[in-house]
Amino acid sequence: MSNKLSLEAAAREQLQRASTEDSGRSARTVYGGHEHLLRQTLIALVAGAGLGEHANPGEATVHVLQGRVRLSTDSSSWDGRRGDLIVVPDDRHRLEALEDSAILLTVAKQTRPAPS
């Protein structure tokens, strides 16, 4: 991967892909991956699509690049729109696109303690 990426261009590309997928979503890791502690994933969702309830794999934020989304737990919800940064709670949560949206999910995975 190069040292520079246009998130706006990548978001447009992923939204185009999401519009052709049955799931209504598309994703691309833009930095890091399974071998890194930090991972950033660009996720595009068409209106009404979402990510079902799941656990938080570590510290995480959602940066809304385009559109409007809702991040929810059983007891709270946060709406975000372009430019907003939502801190992902430690609780199980879900994400729904209120309109065609692109987000940058940043996760710092928890490390396992070293064996003693």
TrEMBL record:
Segments of skewed composition (Basic and acidic residues): 10-25
Signal peptide: none
SUPFAM superfamilies linked to this entry: RmlC-like cupins
Species for this entry: Pseudonocardia benzenivorans
Identification of the protein by name: Cupin domain-containing protein
Top-level lineage group: Bacteria
Region (Disordered): 1-27
Domain annotation Cupin type-2: ranges: 44-102
Alphabetical list of Pfam families matching this protein: Cupin_2
